[in-house]
Design brief:
Elements: E1 2-10, H1 14-23, E2 29-33, E3 41-48, E4 51-59, E5 74-82, H2 84-99, E6 105-106, H3 108-113, E7 125-126, H4 128-138, H5 153-157, E8 163-169, H6 192-204, H7 222-247
Parallel strand pairs: 6-7
Antiparallel strand pairs: 1-2, 1-5, 2-3, 3-4, 5-8
Length: 248
Amino acid sequence: MQAVYIVLTNTGSLINWALKSVTSAPYNHASLALDKDFSRIYSFARREPLNPFWGGFVREDFVKGTFSWYPDSTCAVYRLMLTSREYRKLERIISVFEKKPKRYLYNYAGLVGIPINYPIEMPASYFCSQFVAEVLSRAGHRLFSKRSALITPEDFRHHPELELIYQGGVYQYPDLYCQEIYQPKQYQNFPFRKYMLQQLDTEILRLMDREHKQYYFRDGFLKPKKIYLTRQIGKVKHVKKLWKGFIG
């Protein structure tokens, strides 16, 4: 027997907040991890942190990916035991997705079908929980009797076969592969100007490949800008204070 892990998360993003207001569920994203340390974790989600409407198949990255923009994300990790044959078949299925990841799109239409209990399936398209349920079913381990296009993250929370092994902050998960090497940058030593120019080139103008980034900031794009501007305003206030003291 070998274990796989179903990871339910809540990033606190605007899209996640909107889904939560509708579903009232604590977690609205599902991923499938083949290892306990999440070094191989897959889902259907946004491909770029700044663009929630361009989604598809992704191998999620906790250092450089979307999760790094939401350091206060919470999660629930469930363990599912598979036979060795099922596990090997699951790996082969995932490898097919990995060969041509851009072929697969996010099934936005499928989300509309869930509230009305009508499965909407699109060619080579899935949403996160649909993908997890579907690949497990194809591997020979079907968890639900209903169609995968009707499965939500909340369904995994209540499945008797899944064992809850952790609940809490994503970056406090004890087995996370990047826990030791990935820590928040110290604000006072962070090169904000270079970071902002890099973000402009990579995320907005697309002049540079994201893989070639030199500077990473765990708390995303807006917080460094806010801290940088606050620091500059603080310097101006300090100069004004000195000037008043000089002329006063």
